[in-house]
Amino acid sequence: MSHLPERTVDLCPTAGIMLNAMSIDCEIWTKGTTGNGYPAMKKGARTVYVKRALWEALHGSVPDGQTVRSRCGNRLCVNPEHLYLDRQGRLNAPMVNGRFVNNAGGSTESLDG
Question: CB of 107 within 8 A of CB of 59?
Fold first, then answer.
């Protein structure tokens, strides 16, 4: 059981979507998803990615060329403590022995970094 102070984030007041922003466990999204299974919700007339909306509510806008991912690797997890910014397209990058490689075949970084 976590003894962290509880802090909630109101993602969408009209939909009543509140998340505990200090939990250490995965918080599984049980509402709508995209066709690829990513958490999504309506915000006004637009459909938005929940992880991106949550990041922006807590940290401000996501820089160009960046995307929001979950450290736990669970596509449906929306725990703010698990979110981080990453380069777009990195998950499709070529890998050798668990490390990303550049076009010349040299290792560039580990999965952790």
Answer: no
CA distance 66 to 87: 5
Collapsed DSSP state (helix, strand, coil) of residue 19: strand
Instruction: Please indicate, yes or no, whether the overall pTM of this predicted structure exceeds 0.70.
Output: no
Residue range of the domain that includes 65: 8-88
Write phi, then psi, for 90 (nearest 5 degrees): -65, -30
Segment 61-101, tens digit of pLDDT: 999 989 998 888 889 999 998 999 988 876 655 556 555 55
Distance, first Cα to last Cα, the chain: 29
Any domain includes 52? yes
Domain count, the chain: 1
63 part of a folded domain: yes
Kindly tell me the sign of the dihedral angle through the C-alpha atoms of 21, 75, 62, 67. positive
The tokens for 27 are: 């918080």
- Looking at the domain assignment, is residue 48 inside a domain? yes
β partners of residue 100: 95, 109
